[in-house]
Every structure is written in structure tokens, then in C-alpha cells.
């Protein structure tokens, strides 16, 4: 280490220390909303690693991220403003202490949440740089870490995992929460491991240099274990450790030792560092509060045009649409379990795509959280990222990556990454309670997460073609299992016109020639039952019905439904999933709020698990009879009211 190297590291560590001390002072004065997590005592870990990075490298961090952010960006005003919730903050106060987002740096407040995103960024950034992911030893309790270790090792991704081992997971000692060793964990996945500590920070700098060089050389991932000490509380003032232990750690603190000894490098930069912190504090206090505009509900007229129902099997049309997407977007990746040839996915949607695009269609381990997180990182790196989760029931395993990671990135930065999770949902195949659910309602209402559902009426190339255009942000795209083998055009009755709205993801309207008495509304695979019910209502009961189905469930633009819903006195809302707090409940509420003169009836799955037995499953899932009965009951209610 040269003299300039030493001075640069001392300045960086001192800057981090003084910024965090100032943040604690501001917190005590009531200027900091929420919480603040400091890394006082750990500063040399951040600056030693960051000193070897280049502008094209990406850095991921956790809730204790201030030092990493400053070491990478040097942006003191942006950090102080962000923690204070001010408009001059790096994300205008949206993220606060834990959530920071720039082109080079992302931190998240959920333990382990950043790890798969780092792997995805490493994959996207392979030709230009590396990814560095800072986690604490407490995070080694999270399963997603090991999913990513496995995948990063298999794919030899250029990612450096820095484990800052301060001996605690919040208040729990590491020895009470962690079996084995950090080195043993790396070794188990065939990942190289190095160890250093912040007390010997010059040696740490050299070890970090070697680790970064190794990753940059193309040798695959590396785990750098940094032994260190956190002198402050986990958050604010909640420190219940023995004061004698803290005093002992403070007496060994390398930066305190340098300051107390009037180290020349400290003296050379101390006044300048203080000015930087003072100026950043003044700028934040002078700035206005950060605000978030509330998006207004669209108010516009919908234009309808004639559409043709797909005349090929839905699975064939979907496969062809995905092939077109992969051909038109050379930056697109498709990853998932068993998606490559010869298997081509559990429902054969991706068959043959890996033959055409062997480098961009990849099989993954059975690791749903890692798969979705890696796909998010790929998209954050500029790719169009498609991920297939084999069954929709398994999306629950990746919920954190969808809800707390991908969806929040757009909130912080203004535009979320184009990561699209495709997954089959629904019953009717005898797969039983853990492979037959329709769980899309669990993800409705998550700001920043678009939810789409193929309904068979909209040609798959329309939906996938819009995905190929980009700009969708994080998206959950539901494919009903029963839909795969159907030819939608074969079920359409005579005497109806199929219309599509001019929305990006269209609403489909099967409209009769004469005014309808009943509107049948549903999404996804149940549209097949609605079409059959529409025909039966006419042939058996002389009732004219119409079918309307949105492709985009959230955010929901009610304008696409208003005309059809308002044109008939009875509305039957059907969904294959549970009715309680479901999509139908939201549509019913919108109808009531707008005062539409409509009698509403709802049809949904029975309130229990979905059985594997054929007869029991048929009874559990809504069918044509249920829809017809609900429509007739609604008509009866209208007739009663009229009397």
C-alpha cells in the first residue's frame, strides 16, 4: 500500500464515521424519520473493497448500507438528504436509511434480498465488470443465500460476496445462530474464500484487491469474510450488549486509534471531511420534504375493434410468440426449471427455444427465490428477463423477490426492471392442493407489480408482443393450465362479435348482436366456462349474455369494463381462485362505488383446498352450472326489484 492509498482509505473511513455520527445527532434532534442503521466500527470494510472497483462494477448492499454507498459513490448530500426524507435525497426520501438506488448501487432492507439480484447483475454485466454484494453474518440464516451460492458457482458468475462478520444478528450472537463456518459454506459450493479483518485494515485492503482481481479474471464467485465489530446499536439506541464488551471493542477500533494518535493522514483530511459533512447537513435541512405524486386513475374513452379468436392450440401460439420475442430481442433471457430442450417446460411452452438460443435459454436449479431474483438483476442490468416458475403455487417461494425487491426498485428509481414471471395456475388436472391453486389475488394491489392473465380470447402474440416492447416493469403473467390445450376459436358461439379494447393489454368483449341482460366477467382460464355459460343461457333459458375479460388485472383500468358492465342489469363475476378478497371483490366494489345500476353475483372456488380426485375437484372449482345459476339468480333479483 502506497502513501496515497493509505490516505485515501483513512479519508474514506473517516468520512463514513463522521456522516453516521452526524446522522445519529440528527436523529436525536428529531430530524430523521423512521430508523437509522449505522456501521460505526466497520468502515474499513466498505472503503477497502470499494477502492478496487471501477465505474462499470455494480454494488448491492443491505440495511446497514451507508458506508458502502459513500465508499462507492462519495455522494454525501444524497445520502444525508435521503435519510432525512428530503427532496435532495438520492431517491427523494422514498427509501430512507435502508433503501438506496442509483445506476451503480442498490440496497434493500430485507435480509438476503439483494443476494440474487447481485448474481443477476453479475450475469448481465459479465463483459464489463463485476458485482459486489455486502451482507452480514446474520444473513447467513437466509435460505436464498445458499440458492444463489449454488447458482453463482454453477454459472461461474463474476460476483464477490463480502460477508461482514460483526458477531451479531441484531441482538443474537453469531455462535447462537450459525452452525459451522463461513469458509465451510463457501467450500461446500466450490466457491473460493478469503478472510481478513478491519483491525488490520491495510492487510484487508490487499486481500480485497486479490479477491476483486480473482473475480474479474473470470474465475467465478468469491466469498470474502471480513471480521469486524459494530460499535453502535443495531438501530438507533437499542443496544443491550454488555457495556464492558462495547468498551473493549471500542478500545481496539482502528479508526479511533488513528484519531486519538493524531495520525498524519487523519489530520490532513479531518477539516475537509468536517466541511463536507456540514455542507451536506445544511443542504438537507434546507431542502423541502420528499414527496410522492399519487397517480391519477385514467379517465378516457375506450375504443373497441374487431378481433379474431386464436385458431391454434393456445400452447402452440404461446410458444410461437415467445420464439418471436427471443428473435426480436437479442437482449432477452428466458430462465427457469426444465425449460431447455428436450423437455421444454412442464407444459411444453418453451420447447425448441433453447435450440435456437442456447446461451439465453437456461435451466436453473429448483430455487424459486434465486431464479426470480437473478432475473430481476438481469433486467436491472438492461436485459428483458423472462422467468418461468413451473407451477403458480410455487410463486409463494419467490414472493419476497417480487413484492419487496423487484416492485420496490421502480418505486425508488421511477421505472422498475422489465422482469416477467410466467407461471401456470389453476386446477382441473387432478394435481391436488399444492399444484392446482389460482393465487394471483395474493399479488394484486402491490404497487409496482403488474399482474396479467391470458384468457384465450386475446391472442398470445398480442400479450407477449407487448412484453417484447419493454417498459412493463415487474410483471406476473398467469397462464391457466386448462388453457394450454384448447383452441379458443372453437368454443365461440355464433351470433357474437369478439372485440378488443385499445389498451396496451386488451380487455376482450364477446358482444351479442342484441342488448344483453347479463354480463359474465372473469379472467384467465375461466373465460372458457363463461363462453359456454353464455351459449347455454341463450339456448336453454332464452337469456342473452355477454362475456368481458381483462388481460391486465392490476393496475386495473375500470374504463375497459365500464361500458359492458353498465350495459346489462346483471353482472356475474367469476374466478377460479378463492372469492374472499379476490379480483371479483375489487370489481364488485368498483361497480358499487360508481353507482352502476347492476345486480352483482359472484362465483368462485369452494373455500377449501383443491382435491386431487376428479369428482371432488369438479365440485371444488367453479363451472358452467355455477355461472348459469348465478346469472339466473341475478335475473330473478332484478325482476323482484322491478315489482
From TrEMBL:
GO biological process, alphabetically ordered: pyruvate decarboxylation to acetyl-CoA; tricarboxylic acid cycle
**Which residue intervals define the domain Transketolase-like pyrimidine-binding in the entry?**
312-486
Q: Does the keyword Transport apply?
A: no
What GO terms are given for molecular function? dihydrolipoyllysine-residue succinyltransferase activity; magnesium ion binding; oxoglutarate dehydrogenase (succinyl-transferring) activity
Show the catalytic activity.
N(6)-[(R)-lipoyl]-L-lysyl-[protein] + 2-oxoglutarate + H(+) = N(6)-[(R)-S(8)-succinyldihydrolipoyl]-L-lysyl-[protein] + CO2
Question: Which key words are in the record?
Answer: Oxidoreductase, Thiamine pyrophosphate, Tricarboxylic acid cycle
Q: Which cofactor does it need?
A: thiamine diphosphate
UniProt xrefs under InterPro entries: DH_E1, PDH_E1_Alpha_Subunit, THDP-binding, Transketo_C/PFOR_II, Transketolase-like_Pyr-bd, Transketolase_C
Q: Which residues form the signal peptide?
A: none
Hydrolase: present as a keyword of the record? no
Catalytic class of the enzyme: transferase
Q: Recorded E.C. number(s)?
A: 2.3.1.61
The name on file for this protein is dihydrolipoyllysine-residue succinyltransferase
Q: Which species? A: Kutzneria kofuensis
Q: What is the lineage of its organism?
A: Bacteria, Bacillati, Actinomycetota, Actinomycetes, Pseudonocardiales
Amino acid at each position: 500500500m502506497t502513501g496515497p492509498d493509505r490516505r485515501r482509505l483513512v479519508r474514506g473511513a473517516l468520512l463514513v464515521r463522521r456522516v453516521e455520527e452526524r446522522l445519529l445527532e440528527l436523529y436525536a434532534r428529531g430530524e430523521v424519520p423512521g430508523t437509522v442503521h449505522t456501521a460505526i466500527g466497520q468502515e474499513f470494510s466498505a472503503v477497502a473493497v470499494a477502492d478496487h472497483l471501477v465505474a462499470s462494477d455494480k454494488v448491492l448492499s443491505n440495511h446497514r448500507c451507508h458506508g458502502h454507498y459513500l465508499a462507492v459513490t462519495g455522494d454525501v448530500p444524497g445520502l444525508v438528504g435521503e435519510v432525512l426524507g428530503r427532496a435532495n435525497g438520492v431517491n427523494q426520501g422514498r427509501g430512507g436509511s435502508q433503501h438506496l438506488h442509483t445506476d451503480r448501487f442498490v440496497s434493500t432492507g430485507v435480509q438476503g434480498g439483494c443476494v440474487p439480484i447481485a448474481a443477476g447483475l453479475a450475469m448481465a454485466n459479465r463483459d464489463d465488470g463485476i458485482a459486489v454484494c455486502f451482507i452480514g453474518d446474520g444473513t447467513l440464516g437466509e435460505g436464498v443465500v445458499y440458492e444463489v451460492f449454488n447458482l453463482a458457482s454453477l454459472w461461474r458468475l463474476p460476483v464477490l460476496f463480502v460477508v461482514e462478520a460483526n458477531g451479531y444478528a441484531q441482538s443474537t450472537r453469531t455462535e447462537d445462530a450459525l452452525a459451522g463456518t463461513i469458509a465451510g459454506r463457501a467450500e461446500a459450493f466450490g466457491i473460493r474464500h478469503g478472510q481478513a479483518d478491519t483491525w488490520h485494515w491495510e492487510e484487508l485492503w490487499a486481500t480485497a484487491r486479490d479477491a476483486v482481481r480473482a473475480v474479474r479474471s473470470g474465475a467465478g464467485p468469491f466469498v470474502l469474510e471480513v471480521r469486524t465489530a459494530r460499535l453502535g446499536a443495531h438501530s438507533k439506541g437499542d443496544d443491550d450488549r454488555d457495556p464492558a464488551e462495547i468498551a473493549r471493542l471500542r478500545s481496539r477500533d482502528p479508526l479511533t486509534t488513528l484519531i486519538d494518535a493524531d495520525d498524519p493522514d487523519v489530520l490532513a483530511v479531518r477539516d475537509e471531511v468536517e466541511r463536507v459533512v456540514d455542507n451536506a447537513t445544511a443542504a438537507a435541512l434546507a431542502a423541502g420534504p420528499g414527496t410522492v405524486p399519487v397517480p391519477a386513475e385514467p379517465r378516457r374513452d375506450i375504443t373497441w375493434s374487431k378481433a379474431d379468436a386464436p385458431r391454434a392450440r393456445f400452447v402452440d401460439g404461446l410458444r410461437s410468440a415467445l420464439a418471436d420475442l427471443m428473435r426480436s430481442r437479442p437482449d432477452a433471457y428466458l430462465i427457469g426449471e426444465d425449460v431447455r430442450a428436450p423437455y421444454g417446460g412442464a407444459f411444453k411452452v418453451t420447447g425448441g427455444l433453447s435450440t435456437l438460443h442456447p446461451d439465453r435459454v437456461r435451466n436453473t436449479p429448483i430455487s424459486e427465490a434465486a431464479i426470480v431474483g437473478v432475473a430481476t438483476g438481469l433486467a436491472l442490468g438492461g436485459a428483458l428477463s423472462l422467468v418461468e416458475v413451473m407451477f403458480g403455487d410455487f410463486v409463494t417461494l419467490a414472493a419476497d423477490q417480487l413484492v419487496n425487491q423487484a416492485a420496490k426498485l421502480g418505486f425508488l428509481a421511477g421505472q422498475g426492471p422489465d422482469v416477467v414471471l410466467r407461471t401456470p395456475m389453476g386446477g382441473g388436472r387432478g394435481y391436488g392442493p399444492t399444484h392446482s391453486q389460482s393465487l394471483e389475488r395474493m399479488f394484486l394491489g402491490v404497487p409496482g407489480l403488474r399482474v396479467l392473465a391470458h384468457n384465450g380470447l386475446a391472442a398470445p402474440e398480442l400479450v407477449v408482443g407487448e412484453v417484447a416492447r419493454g417498459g412493463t416493469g415487474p410483471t406476473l403473467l398467469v397462464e391457466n393450465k386448462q388453457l394450454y390445450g384448447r383452441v379458443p376459436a372453437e368454443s365461440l358461439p355464433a351470433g357474437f362479435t369478439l372485440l378488443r379494447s385499445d389498451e396496451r393489454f386488451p380487455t376482450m368483449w364477446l358482444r351479442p348482436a342484441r342488448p344483453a341482460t347479463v354480463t359474465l366477467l372473469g379472467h384467465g382460464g375461466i373465460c372458457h366456462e363463461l363462453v359456454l355459460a353464455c351459449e347455454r343461457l341463450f339456448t336453454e333459458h332464452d337469456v342473452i349474455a355477454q362475456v368481458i375479460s381483462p388481460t391486465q388485472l392490476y393496475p386495473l383500468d375500470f374504463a375497459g369494463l365500464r361500458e359492458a358492465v353498465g350495459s346489462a342489469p346483471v353482472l356475474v363475476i367469476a374466478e377460479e381462485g378463492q372469492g374472499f378478497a379476490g379480483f371479483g371483490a375489487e370489481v364488485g366494489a368498483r361497480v358499487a362505488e360508481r353507482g352502476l345500476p347492476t345486480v352483482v353475483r359472484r362465483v368462485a372456488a369452494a373455500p377449501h383446498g383443491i382435491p386431487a380426485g376428479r369428482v371432488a375437484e369438479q365440485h371444488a372449482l367453479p363451472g358452467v352450472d355455477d355461472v348459469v345459476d348465478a346469472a339466473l339468480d341475478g335475473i330473478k333479483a332484478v325482476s323482484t326489484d322491478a315489482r
